[in-house]
Amino acid sequence: MADAAANTAPPSDEINFLSIHSQNDAASSSSTPQMSGEERFRIVRSVGEECIQEDELLNLLTKKPEPICYDGFEPSGRMHIAQGVMKTINVNKLTSAGCKVKIWIADWFAQLNNKMGGDLKKIQTVGRYLIEIWKAAGMDLNGVEFLWSSEEINKRAHEYWPIVMDIARRNKLPRVMR
Q: CA 83 to CA 80: how far, in whole Å?
């Protein structure tokens, strides 16, 4: 019985593996002036499967102290392991290399796809729930910003909707599908 109880609390090493920082590094700034461009490149490059312009990425990381990286998700229910653990690992790698990470929460797109019955309040609740899972999984939120698509579109609706209408007017479905 004592062995079973001991196995329920994970050792601290198991928690730290999700971050490439140790606990002591967590308090440090997300900007990494002590890290070379090549070191930053190696870390950032480890996140992606494919990089078409590696020389441009290296140049960006050498010259820009806090480049912005984007990711996103559509709140649609339960989180699967890759979405939870891998996003945590990858975001922590990016922030450790001095990147700012903006994660788009595609709430309106989830509503368009009838997730959670198309109920925007439920979709947004699921979005907040997923953020809490990433926090619990060890995502370092220093340098991370979550953006709700509905809020961002509404902030500049006068710019967004005319562009959407123009694209819709100029393109027919077969062209878009091609």
A: 5
